[in-house]
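Lecture notes, unit on binding sites. The following record was shown on slide 14. It pairs a sequence with magnesium ion.
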Amino acid sequence: MTTRDFHLSVVIPVFNEAGNIQPLLTRLMQTVDKYRYEIIFVDDGSTDTTIQEIKDECAHNPHIKLVRFSRNFGHQNALSAGYNFAKGDCVVSIDADLQDPPELIDQMIDAWQKGLHIVYAHRKSRTKESVFKRLTARLFYWFINQVSEVPIPTEVGDYRLIDKKVVRYLNDLPEYARFLRGLVAWSGYLTGYVSFDRSPRHSGTTHYPLRKMISFAVTGITAFSTKPLRVVIYFGFIIATLGLMGMFYAFIRRFLLPHEYWVTGWTALFVSITFFSGVQIVILGVIGEYIGRIFTQTQGRPLYLVDETVNIER
Ligand code: UDP
Ligand code: MG
């Protein structure tokens, strides 16, 4: 029998999840009420009745807390805020849409009490999600693991338990563009897994449309690798070598075979100019992406602004 003499924090980022608050709490409560717990909802600028739903719950349970952002700052920033406010010895982050079964928290806590500092909920199957989402996710994790210096776990989302020392490390990080899955892995603390089958969303639709997925992927890749810059250099060498070969060819034809009539080649010129201009713009774009990251980092803006808190004493 393990001790229950610890404090559990559950962090839930929410963005327009009105239909999910009640069902989530009903299920979550059955798991957490055997512990000393707090549930921190981080409202990421919802415009529906989410805030009211949460406030109603806060009114008759002081362990349910709300941190409300002034606007939408994004899922990763909402999670970061949750870690900032969490007081627990371990912190579980979970999505609000019941795609992550709250019942798994018991197993995560068991693993944590055996000495692990990071316990991921591993998605054994995602058959209830769209083929597109699964394929793009697989492609992204394959790619990022090709380029990243530290392995980033696959089939793992932001449903995990972390020890308070991992929370402290995350809170002290000055990094602006946060890719928390990578940052948690980067810390290298003792890691374990528990498995589950991912369910469909309880209510509403995903807040990760393709545009946000791409931006998330680019943040992850640029935050964890400078290899794209190196690939661009290799590419430049290959193109320069081709150019050099073309130059020799042109010289030889022009000077060693001057009697030959030689004005054809417009197509070759046109194709190579347009192709290589495109290549250069892509290369500039890759460099620009890294410069943009430096720029936002040097601006030093806060990750989020809190407009209001409920049941949180500071
Ligand atoms: N979320 C958020 N801010 C956002 C987008 C999403 O706080 O800008 C929350 C959302 O309410 C949910 C979690 O992040 O609790 C995961 O989002 P979602 O379920 O839409 O992502 P998916 O499961 O489709 O990847
Ligand atoms: Mg979801």
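Take-home: Residues 95, 97, 99, 201, 206 surround magnesium ion (ligand 2) (CB under 6 Å).
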